[in-house]
Amino acid sequence: xxxxxxxxxxxxxxxxxxxxxxxxxxxxxxxxxxxxxxxxxxxxxxxxxxxxxxxxxxxxxxxxxxxxxxxxxxxxxxxxxxxxxxxxxxxxxxxxxxxxxxxxxxxxxxxxxxxxxxxxxxxxxxxxxxxxxxxxxxxxxxxxxxxxxxxxxxxxxxxxxxxxxxxxxxxxxxxxxxxxxxxxxxxxxxxxxxxxxxxxxxxxxxxxxxxxxxxxxxxxxxxxxxxxxxxxxxxxxxxxxxxxxxxxxxxxxxxxxxxxxxxxxxxxxxxxxxxxxxxx
Length: 280
Ligand SMILES: [Zn+2]
Hints:
The chain is an alpha/beta fold. The protein is 43% helix and 12% strand.
């Protein structure tokens, strides 16, 4: 019954608050959204409108946030959940947007109990304790078909975290097999680790060889932008991702040349966060 009222509330809101045409047209014509059907366009627009209603987007570091920026972020964030339903994002509430890449300070405790602090310069971070942090410059660079998309990457981590800590295995749908998922991803991961160790060419960014969570997030970026790179080299992973995201981007996107593996380029100023574990 609760689900029914929730759905009704959402439908009422969406009927009265569509994303304006002028704004939507500027975003939906970007390469990332090529080949979506009219039904999927409408659904994406509704998901994006609901995303903007439900999630708080906080701009920091002097970033001036416009409606077009908000819609560009929301549309990209909504693509992975297009056929999963909006509830897939219902366990977190906030996106924090930096002008450029930012310094994230974190702590970890080693085996002897000592607490260490460390810093990383990042384009995005999905925090297990809440928000998603993103660099606007990188969000803006993301909706091209080059296999690199910080929005899809971080929101894939959020989907992964629905089963606890990100480990490369999100909760799977009824009818999917954990066995088959693990087999497909383990083989691909081992192959990528070998390519990284031996300095071999890789069709997939070797950041995927960092750990299984990054493997799933990086494969998700390629899935939505250069699906041929996965289908040609890791067809079992492609099949699992089709079943998980309930989409087949291979059928709608043009074949583009794979980009060689490289580290994301840093754009814009690096904004420090003020204290360990604090990101505002
Ligand atoms: Zn990641």
